[in-house]
Amino acid sequence: MKKIAILTLSTLFLISCGGEKKNEIATETPITVKVSGTTENDNSPFVTASGKIESQNSANVSTRMMGYVTKVHVKMGQKVSQGQLLVSINNTDLQAKKAQVDASILQATAGYNNAKKDYERFQALFAQQSASQKELDDMTSRYEMAKAGLEGAKQMRNEVMAQFSYANITAPFSGDVTNTFVKEGDMANPGMPLVSVEGNGIMQVMAMVSEGDITSIKNGMPVTVLVKSSNKQLKGKVSEVSGSATNTGGQYLVKINLEKTDNKVLSGMFVNVQFPIEKPKAKTETTKSDKILVPESALVKQGQLTGIYTVSNNVAILRWIRIGKSFGNQVEVLSGLSTDEKYIISAEGKLYNGVKVSVQ
Predict the structure, then answer these.
(1) Which of 105-114, 206-215, 258-267 has the highest mean pLDDT?
(2) What's the pTM value of the predicted model, to 2 decimals?
(3) With 80 as the cut, is the pLDDT of residue 207 above it?
(4) 341/355 Cα distance (integer angstroms)
(5) Rounded-to-integer distance, Cα 146 and Cα 144, Å
(6) Which pLDDT value is given to residue 193?
(7) Quick one: 268 exposed, middle or buried, by C-beta within 10 A (0-12, 13-18, 19+)?
(8) CB 3.0-4.6 Å disulfide test: which of 120, 205, 299, 351 passes with 256?
(9) Residue 177 · residue 56 · CB < 8 Å
(10) Which residues lie closer than 8 Å to 73 by C-beta, 6 or more apart?
């Protein structure tokens, strides 16, 4: 009888505890939350495209001659001025050619001066009728040949001097050295890039736009550029729009000039470009954008999963979603959330799946 009594008391104690726990759950205070619908911009819809920042002035400097690199005068990241020496290539053969041409010029100059004096002398003799017409014609031909020989020697020297510009590679404009492709002792070949230089001028964005959106993009259109790495917004204008996608894999190239900004912008940064599109006026109903944008602060991340809290019957439900591009502090939702579905943007307490909430 004692064992039965103890068991009965234990059972009653557990039942009473379970009842109290259920009462606590039932009387749990709901968390106050703020709920918002999907963010849409009906007045200014936009087309988005990915792109990359580049400098308007950029060049891979190369040479037309073959030879060993004797010295690389710059380093990656160094600032250079227009005309500054970048790379020197062995030019011993050019030095020999220059010496030969200089000797030819001296020889041609002596012959020209001698022929000129004879020509002037025979002109005077012919005027005095002391020389025949044939003798004057012979002196004239000799003089013209000497003159042409001197001019040819000078042009040969110009050709050799032009070759020196391909042995001493200089900067085509002022800017920064972004890369060096050779080192001392390497063999430089015609057309092979030696040094890459980018100017300090205006930066531009090279964006690729799909064929369905290219017809809406015009020159001079103001755009918003979102830098992915820093999440900064930049302003720019469309400067060029390609009319063919034959050589770009079905994508149309669009160039955008960026406005000057205090934000640090480097060549090679990836961006998203927003092109504003004029809304059709012949609409009786409100046209909603098919893009679902939610604040980044409303997202919940667990490992590689991304979710957002929705509300159903005053209960928070964690919904896993798939996100796309970022637009400032907003993120595009590709799947997992419908356009008319409400989601929690802030809460006055810790949210978890199944907690009761009170919509403010």
Answers:
(1) 105-114
(2) 0.53
(3) yes
(4) 18
(5) 5
(6) 92
(7) exposed
(8) 205
(9) no
(10) 84, 85, 86, 87, 88
Q: pLDDT of 73-110, one tens digit each?
A: 999 989 999 999 999 999 888 889 999 999 999 999 99
Tell whether the model's pLDDT for residue 26 goes beyond 50. Answer: no
3-state secondary structure of 186: coil
What are the backbone dihedrals phi and psi of residue 45, each rounded to the nearest 5 degrees, phi first?
A: -65, 160
- β-strands 31-36, 357-359 pairing: parallel
| Lookup result for tokens 């849409």 | 40
Among all chains, which residue has been given the structure tokens 């755009």?
223
Q: Give the Cα separation of 315 and 355 in Å (integer).
A: 6
**The two structure tokens encoding residue 192:** 């092979």
Dihedral angle sign, alpha carbons of residues 311, 316, 321, 325: positive
Helix 133-164 vs helix 92-127: crossing angle, to nearest 10: 160
Inform me whether the pLDDT recorded for 143 exceeds 60: yes
The H or E element that residue 351 is part of is none
Q: Which of 360, 352, 284, 246 is nearest to 28 (CA)?
A: 352
Residues 6+ apart with CB under 8 A from 359: 33, 34, 35, 311, 314
DSSP state of 279: P
Task: Report whether 77 contacts 176 (CB < 8 A).
Answer: yes
Alpha carbons 280 and 275: distance in angstroms, whole number: 16
List residues bridging with 210 in a β-sheet: none
Rounded Cα distance, 183 and 74, in Å? 11
Query: Does the pLDDT of residue 280 top 50, yes or no?
Result: no
pLDDT in tens, 325-350: 776 667 888 888 887 788 888 888 88
- Residues pairing with 75 in the sheet: none
User: In what order do the strands lie in the sheet containing 67-72?
Assistant: 168-170, 85-89, 67-72, 187-188
